[in-house]
Amino acid sequence: MSYSAPERETILQCDDETKKWSITTLQPTVITKLKKANIEPYKVTNDGMHWYKDIDFNRISFRNESNRQPMTDEQRKAAAERLLEGRVRRYEQA
Description:
Radius of gyration: 22 Å
Largest sheet: 4 strands, antiparallel
Shape: elongated
Structural class: alpha+beta
Strand order of the largest sheet: 1-2-4-3
């Protein structure tokens, strides 16, 4: 069975007492991220729902958006030159 985008969801539950996460998801992107983090589901239903439990609290994190401004072409060129100079110096020292 295939679900439409609005029907696919991820549910995160955290237990403050045990410091463990439980995750239920139908979202392929979330499933892939969990698999890459070596977090395996304990149950996968016929409709594709993945169930995870007892995930250590520190294994799941939420990152803030970057506050950096995009570089101008001049800034990018200057950064590339600094990087090259540093690599040349490091190579010369070796």
